[in-house]
Specification:
2 domains; mainly alpha; 229 residues; single chain; 0% strand; globular
Length: 229
């Protein structure tokens, strides 16, 4: 492996390291509190690796929920990844052996890092793979640490479920401060709020994502010009 490629990927993922270890730590603690130990934490983070859905999954396996409820909940919570995937088709078109893992590991934060990477180096796919892999490792380490800590020291974990929301807010603020796509971000906020008012708090996400996608597709050229300016 080219050390320079690894170093570039590592530096790029440092902000995610800070977030994933903390958020993963919270997940590991909550899972332990629900009665599921280290093996469960490791397995869910290794094979599911779905951030917010893993938090929701705690209540689903604790209830327990029916298979249909689990499927529908997963679809609603992770519906945004359908749109992520569509936008990455061209970028991952020639990823070769890296493609399966790149598709599996496309979390919100990994998507933000890779989608904003405009480099044209021959080692791009290796870079994308390392970015994705490092983020996955950060998450796994966080969940393991959280599970082990909760076993060693017992205390009230009320409110830890908000940590995933906090991570999304931090990612949004970072993109906003970048200053390139503020008009798109503003449209996203307005359309999401409108969808919430119309459809309510439980089912507003999918209509909001559909509306955002339609607007971006129809006005992509004009919005691109505004973002550049």
């Amino acid at each position: 492996m080219n050390f320079n490629v690894f170093k570039r990927a590592f530096y790029k993922t440092l902000p995610i390291l800070a977030g994933y270890v903390v958020i993963g730590f919270g997940f590991g603690m909550l899972l332990r509190q629900a009665g599921y130990g280290l093996v469960w934490a490791l397995a869910m983070s290794l094979f599911i690796y779905a951030g917010s859905m893993q938090y929701v999954g705690i209540s689903l396996i604790s209830a327990p929920a029916t298979l249909l409820t689990t499927l529908l909940t997963t679809l609603v919570v992770n519906a945004r990844h359908l749109f992520y995937s569509i936008s990455m088709i061209k970028k991952y078109d020639k990823a070769g052996k890296f493609k399966p893992y790149l598709i599996f590991s496309l979390t919100d934060e990994t998507y933000a890092l890779i989608a904003s990477d405009d480099s044209k180096q021959a080692s791009d796919y290796l870079h994308f793979f390392i970015v994705s892999f490092l983020n996955h490792i950060y998450w796994i380490l966080g969940t393991i640490a959280g599970s082990m800590f909760a076993k060693a020291i017992s205390f009230n974990v009320l409110g830890l479920e908000f940590s995933m929301t906090a991570l999304f807010l931090a990612a949004f603020v970072d993109q906003w401060l970048d200053g390139k796509h503020r008009i798109v971000a503003t449209l996203g906020i307005l359309l999401t709020l409108t969808s919430r008012l119309i459809f309510g708090t439980k089912v507003f996400l999918i209509p909001a994502m559909i509306a955002i996608t339609i607007i971006l597709v129809i006005f992509k050229d004009k919005l691109g010009e505004v973002s550049v300016k």
